[in-house]
Amino acid sequence: MVIICIIISTTLSSCESYLTDKPKSQITSDEAFNSIEKLKKNALLTIYNYIGGHEEGQGLQGTDRGVYDLNSFTTDEQIIPIRGIDWYDGGLWRRLFFHDWNAGEAPFKNTWNYLYKVVILCNEGIEHIDAYKTTDDHELLTLTTYKAELRAVRAMFYFYLMDLFGRVPLITATGMKSSEMTLCERSDLFYWIYNEFNDSLPYLFSEWSQFPNSEYYGRMTVSVAYFVMMKMALNAEIYTDDDWTDQVYPDGKEIQLKTYNSYENYFIEANAWQTVRAIQNIIKSFYKLSDNYSDNFDVGNEASRENIFVVPMDPQLYLNKYNYFKRSAHYCHGAAMGVGSENGPCATVSTVKAFGYTNHETQILDNRFNTNFYYDNVIVNSQFVYEDDGKTPLCYHPLAVTDFDLSGEEYEKTAGARIAKYTIDAVARNDERRGNNDIVLFRYADVLLMYAEASYRLGDMQNALGALNAVYNRSNYQKYDTIDDDILLCERLKELMWEGWRRNDLIRFRKFHKPYDLKTDSDHEEDAHTTVFPIPADMIVMHPDWKQNPGY
Amino acid sequence: MKKSLFISCLLLLGLGHYGYAQDSLSSVRYSFFAKEIPDSLIAHSSDQLPTTLTRIIDEKQMNNTNQVTNVLDAIRGRVAGLQVSVNGINALNAVRLRGTTSLTGGNDPLIIVDGVMGDLTLLQSIYPTDIQSFTILKDASETAQFGSRGAAGVIEIKTKRGQSGKLHINYNGSVGISVPYKRLEMLSANDYRALAKQYNFDIVDLGGNSNFQKQIERTAITHQHHLAFAGGDDNSNYRVSIGSMNEQEVIKGIGSRSYMGNINLTQNMWDGLLHIDFGMFGSTQEEQRIYDEQKLFYSAAAWNPTFPDHPNSSGAWDTYPSASQINNPNVLLDQKDHTSVAHASGHAKFTFQLLPELKLTLFGAYTYNSNELMRYLPTTVKGGGEAKRQMTRSEKILTSGTLALNKKWGEHAFNFTLFSEFQKDKRRGFGVQVNQFNNDIGGYDALAGGATRPWDGTTSFYECPTMVSFMGQIGYTYFDRYSVKATLRADGSSKFGKNNKWGYFPSVSFGWDLGNEEFIKNLEFFDDLKLNAGLGWSGNQGAIDNYTTHQLLEPNGIPSAGQSPITTYSELKNSNPNLKWEVSRTFNIGVSTQLFNSRLVFSASYYYTKITDMLYPYTVSVPPFKYPKLIANMGAMEKSGLEFSLGGTPIATPDMQLTVNANISFQKDKLLSLSGNYNGEELLAPSKSGIASMNGAGFHGYNSVVFQMIGEPLGVFYLPRFIGFETYHELYDLTDYQSSDSYLAGQAMPKVLLGSNISFRYKNFDVTVQANGAFGHKIFNGTSLTYSALTSLPLYNVLANAPESKIISEAITDYWLESGNYLNIDYITIGWLVPLKKKRILESMRLSLTLNNVATITGYSGLTPMINSTSINGTLGLDDKRTYPLFRTWSLGVSLKF
User: Fold this and answer.
1) Strand B681-683 vs strand B629-652: parallel, antiparallel, or unpaired?
2) Is the pLDDT confidence value at A543 over 70?
3) CB-CB neighbors (< 8 A) of B558 in chain A
4) What is the pLDDT of residue B220?
5) Cα separation, B362 vs B349, whole angstroms
6) Minimal Cα distance from A24: which residue of B?
7) Which of B455, B466, B627 sits opposite A317 (nearest CB)?
8) Which of A276, B152, B193, B607 is 20 to 30 Å from the Cα of B380, by its Cα?
């Protein structure tokens, strides 16, 4: 009997080792963060795979139904009309355009999940760095810079969360139960984010990201952080307002911000508008306007001295996708370029008109129109593109987007000017979704326009006009000689066409919840509750103590 | 591994000697061999009355194995509760025993061939003629014996062995011809032109007059051959067979070719002390599949019929880019989706009859599998072309030991069994993707002809799950009438975390042989009457992948940093270290009887299963979770059913015999719950989530038709109620749907299954008819919905009767929901046993003629109601433009025995 007992216990213990299956294609947490070099790769650089994306709702730009679409299809920048059998998509695009969405929309949930995924990855990365034991001074300094970079990236993602959803839980460490989480007010988030940037700035890379042999292209640098801080300061009236439905806004001149100057190591204390100007003054040391507007979007735009932050693209190396040409181009247009296209998004009529497009011989087009749009007859490789019959030249009709539902209309399939912007790269693969042109997220022209706007708010018309014209005059021979809200907003539309800032701009100019273009009725959003999206419905179900945003 | 095997043998031997010391009563020696029991099952011994209704289907009961191309066709319609869903001629889609067991996976039964365990793919390596018997295990106490893999039931196959005293050569062969006979009736080119004129829309008219559905079809030839040699004497025997199958599908270029071999040897040693079974079987298969069935059949039906059915002057097929959801079907046929599979397995079983009542069985099996996938999408389909190759290899080692003691003590018969099993399954694979090809000639055979290799196109994986099982069983029979059997199985799996590595699966069953009771005997009515009942636990681990319980990092991309590219790692999913088996608890009760000198056989059984700890990807809160889905054990579902089998031989004379077999099963299931609090985190599953959605032009997202709803059967239709048509366009008298709110409109899985087999023999001639039916479920006719909407003109062709119905929208309403009831006559076989005068060389010869897919009796208006009504996936209950053209197969078979 004793022997049997020994045999049984030996058998069971040998089973335990038999029942261990050591993975080889994956690694464990212990193996992933046990050296400085691995911390750099798996705690820090790993998050840069999520600036762009390749799946729906993932990535800041380039993919469908994510941050970019929420910022663009809710405005007059672009529209996806219903084209007969195509693009009804359960009414999503209509609800986005007419601000008739509800908390259950899948893009809200997916965008929330994406942004928080990166936030949590940053939290984990910071904890792995903190857990690494070393006494080597050089290593300690390196770890400090890694940590600062992660904190700044996290702050940037919180910026997007705060901008889109207003009130969100502020999570800065792992291991929290979801029942312990509460929603943080928008103004608290604002100041927290701003200070995170301030804290990180001393340790961030401080040159042009393409500085020879630099490895900071597409990464968080001082200028990227400053750009977001500038956006925050510019929109401070919106972001520090915890009740955005009362039509009462704080005054930017009253909002005091403390901004760290990482070059001269002191804190700038100034109001929101002054802060915008002060930051421009720092960024201008490293960035400037490119000679040509289109240089920033061409293949090889890595060389642009204007692009501050990009989603790097490489069809073989990176997973990032650029879906927007494919999504927009007419089927025959796509086919002529070897792309299976979807014939969807186009510019609204009011937008093409803003560029001077009237389809009359007398029209004077803004020179940026040609870079941004395919319109009228489509020409590929110096040849006309024909419709399916092979006889009718394909022609886009920018002014024909006269109804959201174009079904049965003459130009059902061809209405609207389409997205050109990024020159099509011949070696792009996967239906033109992966080109070589890096997707521009932040660029210096925007910095100048923000500077112009802040100067205008401060009453400094001279500097305001100077900055505005620097941008306008690069592409056009004319100059503005006066400046007002409409000119500023219109110039931002034209300069930053298809770049996903339109919602942010319209809200700041208090026009988002007002009628424009085909959205002629705004009675349901008079209180401006639509300027902030609802907390995704699932989150409210899982957190019964959370209060939904007002108006939803 | 070796160490543990050795130890487990010792363990069994040790226990064996313990038993030996106590026992010296004699029993019938070799009785074990006289009555073969299933290899991997220790259920019944010779002295033990069965406590379950195990269904063993032997060669005689099987369908025409010489002519079926799919192993399971041999028992189709023979087993109550068995559903086999097949696509085309040979592709086995899904197999269900007593319906669905899990929402996430592991729904196909465990397949065991001569003790070698595997999944459905294992069936491909067996030539149907080589099969001796099927054993279908579905009762509680039977499935519990397979522990964590038993929940979905077990199909056990034994292949043929040689017999003593006879030397034989058998040849079986058949030639078949498959002819498509029915496809969708779409507008002809001329009707299409006329309609364009009537409604005044512009069409692209290339002057053709084509039926692209017919163009992609062909008359397909199938031939198969099988040769077997067998012989033996009292102490040893052998059987060796080889076979080949060449099957064309009725779609151009699609088909498969396979070769199989099977060797079985048995030998008795040392005066019967040791009995050795040795076997090997293997196969290779080359298969060309349709790359995307829905796109091909959608394109063939909806492609502009005025396009010519030949390439244009420049040698290319005309394209129609605006019909963006489809492509020229001729171009689609150029897509290559090729699979090459090789399988080999060897197994040996040593049975030691240590004492008359004590037997030790040692079993070992080695299985090797390689699977290569080769795909090429030509430049005409995908810009630049795209080639993919993927190779997966697996090696599986299984060893087991069984010690069985049978002992009879007056009216008390005991049976003790101890069993242990070790299993290791090492799988490795890699794949590569290449784009931007120079030309379309070489495709996947000329990878260097492509210019780019995206980072994510190169993949590889490794996994090596292990499993250890121990089982003990006690059986007791009193007075040849009452028996009880209790089993406890413990399974340990490397897939699970430390806390849940082991799962325990008990079962108990009872049998009462009423036929031996005097009061029944006195009735002189029953030849046999048995009652049985059982209760058992079984598990399912098929629903989770390896390493799901580990917190692991995987390569997630190349971030932009520095001059030389580097990869980074990240966790790509939430991990759950607490995962465990899904548990199925089944209760079943049954009765079986034979009447009138066994001319009438009847059995009935009822089962109820409750599945708890259901694995499901629940929605969790982000944050604190990184990803929105977490696989966890929480939900519950139940299923129950009634099964009846009836077999009769109304006519039985030396010249004439009529046999009728029928079985019917009623089944229902219900999803009980799917949410709750898990370790303090609220887990959520939507009260209603889509399972199957419409695809195609105008159906992008938000078009679910079949849903999973709490408190309802798995897979229900939730649709807006159609109230009538409203006139949409006065001038053209076009109509649109009027509908009210959505409601629960029916279920997608059948409530009743029917199988029937009738055979009649007159002298040397015999006729067999096989029929199957399914009732009580519905089908959403998405094909008609899509092809009826006049809005899709002129880009997509419509049904010939669409202009009559004047419907202009593609709204999803219950207007398109139809009853899915059908009775299908699978085949009719006429056989002739050729009378041979001299039997010197040729011992027997049988000729047979079979017609497959004879007819379907149904009220369903689509092509066929035999769509996917069994598996929970994107096609459940939804007829959506992906149905094969209907075809019939005529085949002529010959069996020669030398």
Assistant:
1) unpaired
2) yes
3) 49, 317-318
4) 94
5) 6
6) B462
7) B455
8) B193
Q: What is the DSSP letter of A533?
A: P
Cis peptide before B686 (omega within 30 of 0): no
Q: Of A7, A14, A48, which is closest to B560 when you measure between CB atoms?
A: A48
Per the prediction, chain A carries an average pLDDT of: 92
* Alpha helices per DSSP H over B205-339: 212-215, 293-302, 329-332
CA distances B196 to A240, A407, B730, B736, B819, Å, are 60, 17, 18, 20, 34
**CA of B15, closest CA in chain A: separation in Å?**
8
Task: Tell me the C-alpha to C-alpha distance, in Å, between residue A514 and each of A99, A501, B91, B182.
Answer: 10, 17, 58, 58
Residues of B in contact with A112 (CB under 8 A): 622
Name the closest residue on chain A to residue B552, using Cα atoms: A28
pLDDT tens across A451-475, in order?
999 999 999 999 999 999 999 999 9
Is A19 within 8 Å of B324 when comparing Cβ atoms?
Answer: no
- Report the distance separating Cα B476 and Cα A335, nearest Å: 75
Q: What is the spatial distance between Cα B335 and Cα B253, in angstroms, rounded to a whole number?
A: 10
For B:53-112, CB contacts with A below 8 A are none
Can you tell me the distance from the alpha carbon of B605 to that of B595, in angstroms, rounded to the nearest whole number?
18
CB contact under 8 A, A215 and B465: no
Of A88, A217, A315, the CB nearest to B560: A217
Using alpha carbons only, how large is chain B's radius of gyration in Å? 29
A113/B627 touch (CB, cutoff 8 Å), yes or no: yes
DSSP one-letter string for A414-453: TBS-EE--SPPPTT-BTTTTB-SSPEEEEEHHHHHHHHHH
**Phi, psi (degrees; rounded to nearest 5) at B267:** -150, 140
B459 near A CB under 8 A: no
Element (H, E) at B778: strand B778-781
C-beta atoms of A113 and B622 within 8 A:
yes
CB neighbour list of residue B653: distance below 8 Å, 6 or more residues apart: none
In whole angstroms, give the CA distance from residue B878 to residue B880. 6
- The dihedral built from the CA positions of residue A266, A270, A272 and A274, taken in this order, carries a sign that is negative
The CA angle B56-B60-B61, to the nearest 5 degrees, is: 55
Give the per-residue pLDDT at A274. Answer: 97
| Predicted pLDDT at B51 | 61
pTM of the predicted model as reported, rounded to 2 decimal places: 0.91
For the beta carbon of residue B657, count every other beta carbon within 10 angstroms. 15
Please report the residues numbered 863 through 892 in chain B whose beta carbons come closer than 8 angstroms to any beta carbon of chain A.
none
In this predicted structure, what is the pLDDT of residue A497?
Answer: 97
Could you report the per-residue pLDDT of B99-150, keeping only the tens digit for each? 888 888 888 899 999 989 888 888 888 998 898 888 888 888 888 888 888 8
β pairing state of B778-781 and B878-879: parallel
Taking every pair of Cα atoms in chain B, the longest distance, rounded to a whole number of angstroms, is 98
Residues lower than pLDDT 70 in chain B: 1-54, 60, 63-67, 69, 87-91, 701-702, 730-732
> Hey, are the CB atoms on B569 and A27 less than 8 Å from each other?
yes
Q: What is the pLDDT of residue B89?
A: 60
Q: How many CB pairs under 8 A join A and B?
A: 250
pLDDT of res. B22 = 31
- Which uninterrupted H or E stretch holds B568? strand B568-570
Residue B436 contacts residue B451 (beta carbons within 8 Å): yes
Neighbours of A97 (CB within 10 A): 22
Cβ-in-10-Å burial (0-12, 13-18, 19+) of A247 comes to exposed
Sign of torsion, CA A198 A203 A207 A213? negative
Please provide the distance, in angstroms rounded to a whole number, between the alpha carbons at the two ends of chain B.
Answer: 46
Query: CB-CB: which of A14, A332, A434 is closest to B3?
Result: A14
Residues 324-343 of B with CB under 8 A from A: 324
